[in-house]
Amino acid sequence: MSFVMTKTYIADYNNPQTEAYQTLAASIVSWSTPIYQAKYGSRFFRVVVKSLRAVARYRADNTEAEIDVEFDQSVPDTVPDTTEVLEQLKEQPSPANLSVDTSTISVLHEPQMIANVPFTITNESSAITLAAVNSTAYRDTTSKIKSEL
Questions:
Q1: Which of 91, 80, 83 is nearest to 35 (CA)?
Q2: Is the distance from CB of 68 to CB of 50 less than 8 angstroms?
Q3: What is the pLDDT of residue 31?
Q4: What tens digit of pLDDT does each residue of 4-42 get?
Q5: Is 49 in contact with 28 (CB distance < 8 Å)?
Q6: What domain range is 7 assigned to?
Q7: One Pfam family this chain carries (predicted)?
């Protein structure tokens, strides 16, 4: 997700190690985190500021933030729709130190769901057979796992 703030871009925002970058990133996280915690509770995991960059608007370069909003993916059906996540941020006023232009809030990429499938082999002879990646048993098992995912 990204959005533009009417905050003049400075060179220190190029480096995540600078105090200016970290201060602005902390402000973004402290503004957005309670919004998602209130709406999604334990399904919400965290907000991460991925980058700050200059965007030309009007007379000076403003600052655009790219963030990731992360959710608990252990139950994929409970991860909210990206449009809903976007609207939550648009509906909340930003603090004066951020001055987010809500018309610029957009989704940059759809979330990728990663399935966490536990797999245990209880038969020792099966484990030995599956250790050989060129064996028929290995290929059959791999095929079954892929079809289940």
A1: 91
A2: yes
A3: 95
A4: 998 999 999 999 999 999 999 999 999 999 999 999 998
A5: yes
A6: 2-106
A7: SEA
